[in-house]
Every structure is written in C-alpha cells, then in structure tokens.
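[agent] plan:
  1. take the single chain provided in the ticket
  2. run structure prediction with default settings
  3. attach structure tokens to the ticket
  4. add a short note for the reviewer (M.T.)
[agent] executing step 1
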Amino acid sequence: MEVFVQQLINGLTLGSIYGLIAIGYTMVFGIIGMVNFAHGDVFMLSAFIALIGFLVLTTILGIGSVALALFIAMLVGMVLTSLWGWSLERLAYRPLRGSFRLAPLISAIGVSIFLSNFVQLAQGARNKPTPPMMQEVIPLFERNGYLVALSYKQLIIMLVTATLLTGFWYVVKKTSLGRAQRACEQDRKMAALVGIDVDRTIALTFVLGAALAAVAGTMYLLYYGVVNFADGFIPGVKAFTAAVLGGIGSLPGAVLGGLIIGLVETMWSAVFPIEYKDVASFCILAIVLTFMPSGILGRPEVEKV
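[agent] step 2 finished; step 3 output follows
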C-alpha cells in the first residue's frame, strides 16, 4: 500500500506536466484542426529559457530565494515563448492555412526539427543541470520502514496545473476570446462573417498554448533538475497522446489524459521493467480509442452537409 500511494503521488505529478503540454495541443487542434507537432519543442525551448533565467537571477543578480527566482524565470519564459508561438503561427502556419491538409503538418514537423537543432547548436548536446531546488518533503506516513512523502515541488506542480486548468476553462467558457475560439471551432467562415477576427483568434490561441508550454517547461525543470535539447520529443508525443486519450478539443480531457498517462507510467515502473512503460501508455491509448474513438471526454465529430 505504501508503495502504491507514493507511486500515485509521483504519477499525478508527472501527469500534471503532461496535462499542461496537452492543453496546448488540444486548443490548437480544436480551432484549426491541425496537430502542432512543434509544440513539444516549444516546451523544450521554454525549459531552457527558464534554466538560463534562473541561473542569471541566482548567480549574477544574487537573488537568494529559489521560489522567487523560479517564478520570475517562469514569467520571462512565458513572455518569450509566447513571442515564439506568435511568430511560428504568423510565419510557418498562417500562409499554409488554405493549402492541402498535409501542408501545415509538414510545416510543423519542419519547425520541430528547426527548434531542436537550434537549441542543440546554441546550448550543446549535453544535459544541462540546475542546483538542487526545493528538496524539502512533507511526510505523510511510514509503514514497514517505507516513508511516504509529498515533496513541495510535487505539491506546487499539481496546484499550478489545477489553477491553470480552472483559469483556461473560465477563459474559454466565459470571455469574449473564448466565445470567438468556440465560434472558430464550429465554423471559421461563419465566424468571420459575423465580425470575428479569425486570424487574431488563432494567433492568440497559439500564444496561450505557448505560454502554457512555458509553465510546463518550468515545472519540468523544477521536477527533474535537468534539461536536454532532445527533451521536446518524448514529452511532446506523450502529451499529444494524453490529448487524444482525454478527447482532443476538451481542456479537462487533456489534463485527464495526462494524469492517466502519468499514472500508467509510474504504476508500471513500480511492478514491471521500466523499459516498457512507454509501451504500456500507448496500449492504454489503443484500448480506449477502440471502444471510445472520440476519447474519454471528447465529443463525436458531426459531419457537415
């Protein structure tokens, strides 16, 4: 039982990071029907920005509070990554929006390769570690000599994910931007006819998705304490899997899918060989989609005639 509870905490933490990345996938796909495969590398880029910002704040500017330095680095990362997201949409995706369906997908893959190689050239191929951060834990209980504990960084990651999910749900459901996003999701041409600026709405969606990726990158850095130029691919694919599993186009579904993927990975790693944890995650996806093709919280697609 004690191992189960500890792995449950670890799985919720990892799933929260996947859920933050998955929201960016599901927002873009819900509006323009495109899978932004560069989103994982935007997440990786934001982790490097958070790392550089944190080191500058603590070593050069002398900020002694780790929490304050990390918070400022996250804000800087959100601003810079949002600019990246806006630039990518404006230069790489918008010109191809009216082209055949595979063109934006190919462009997204090209952007992903560009970002990965750009970071490799700029920062090198080696792992980039950070000094130990927030090592304190909250002991929950001890049984058979095994201490079950919740670390402060795990608590922060789960609280940040819950807060952002609530905030973005409010934006989508209650604000004018959210109404414009839902209108563009249903019919972009009709939305433009009733006065909605479709280009601006899509650009803001990319900006919001990139800002969320920046938060996820900072949480990833806080949790693992190391980042590599190749860290965008595997988390990106798993986050996309989480978005599909939960029902792509649904914000709660993206976070739910992320939590399921995180729990499957950690529970599998506790019992079976860790090398097969990715196989277990994708098997769960295949089983769910076999019986629920729209995902857990997804809505069946309605054919327009």
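[agent] step 4 note for reviewer: DSSP finds eleven helices and four strands in the chain.
[agent] ticket updated
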